[in-house]
Write a structure and sequence with these properties.
mainly alpha; 15 helices; globular
């Protein structure tokens, strides 16, 4: 199988996962602002921080007002073509990669992806309107989960499928770490005990951003608490969106590939770092530093995968923050080497 084929499959899965996660956090933030007192509500800018595109947002919306913040942020994250991490941009890049993979993708998945993107483009204004936003975002999540299910239920278990899993799980681990970092930074300060009841509401929003609230309750069987949420989202070995679980799935996929020693070593470093983190004793600056290091580990895994299996691209230009990229969304340069030839090189 060509190296360009598995690379396209890897990025296709990353972009689909990115679009789904972005839709999730917009929806959850909309509901969170209704549950919290106005004076302590986190607002909308933290969502831009999660995406890692704050500089681009500030440059694009220099004259934004407080009243226009919600509309600006939602537009930037949903439909702004200048934002390579917006939902529409991610879907566009996913389709461009899928276009080169039509011979190996399930026909139904290719058709559904095109129909869904056309529908999303027609109805994108629904995301701006508060009354229709929930249904629009719900449709995105369901459609993208359906496409992922088609991959899982219909694709041959070959190298293309393996790289699809690599892209999906690496993107999930990256997004989970971002949501924990930025969302937790917005939680209530310790010196406001009268507002302490609202702290659990905000930690619930962290879980709901990752569709993890119900699974947390089933696993922990306790009220929502900071340390338990961090344990669940960073180290749980059963919840499919926890960082540790994603790393476990990456290891399982990588064992099926040749020349995997270097990647497995870097992956092991990441897993051990998360496992040894003193979650119970971390203050907020300590947690932020921890998440920064986790994201560096995740980026190292990506760089090693790209160095070994995607020789057509210079990985030094990849930003670790949003993992935004095939050169910030541009289609990758194609390699004429087969995947087997790359693996043996």
């Amino acid at each position: 199988m060509l190296a360009r084929t598995v690379e396209s499959m890897y990025w296709l899965s990353r972009y689909l996962e990115r679009a789904e996660n972005t839709a999730r956090i917009i929806g959850v933030n909309t509901n969170l602002l209704l549950d919290l007192p106005g004076g302590i509500a986190p607002g909308w800018l933290p969502l831009v921080d999660i995406s890692g595109n704050r500089a681009e947002f500030d440059a694009h919306f220099k004259e934004r007002s407080a009243r226009g913040e919600e509309r600006d942020v939602v537009t930037f994250l949903v439909s702004d073509k200048s934002n390579p991490g917006s939902i529409c941009s991610s879907l566009y890049y996913a389709r461009e990669n899928a276009r080169t993979l039509r011979e190996i993708l399930p026909t139904e998945a290719w058709e559904l992806l095109n129909e869904f993107i056309a529908e999303c483009t027609r109805n994108v204004e629904s995301a701006i309107n508060k009354r229709t936003r929930f249904e629009f975002l719900k449709r995105i999540v369901i459609s993208l989960q359906t496409i992922a299910g088609m991959f899982d239920g219909s694709m041959n278990r070959n190298d293309a499928y393996t790289f699809s899993l690599l892209g999906r799980n690496l993107e999930r681990a990256d997004m989970t770490s971002r949501i924990v970092d930025v969302r937790s930074a917005q939680l209530l300060p310790a010196e406001t005990p009268e507002l302490r009841p609202f702290e659990s509401v905000q930690w619930m929003s962290v879980l709901k951003s990752l569709s993890g609230y119900q699974m947390y309750r089933l696993k922990m069987r306790t009220r929502v608490k900071r340390t338990d949420v961090l344990q669940f989202l960073l180290r749980d070995d059963q919840f499919p969106r926890s960082c540790q679980y994603c790393l476990m799935q990456l290891e399982r996929s990588l064992t099926e590939l040749p020349r995997n020693d270097g990647v497995l070593e870097v992956l092991g470093d990441a897993a051990r770092f998360i496992e040894r983190a003193p979650l119970a004793t971390l203050d907020q600056p300590g947690l932020h530093d921890l998440i920064d290091k986790i994201q560096l580990h995740i980026n190292n895994v990506h760089d090693m995968i790209a160095e070994i299996y995607f020789p057509s691209r210079n990985v030094s230009g990849v930003r670790h923050a949003p993992a935004q990229t095939q050169s910030l969304g541009q289609t990758q340069r194609q390699s004429s080497l087969s995947f087997g030839e790359v693996a043996k090189a």
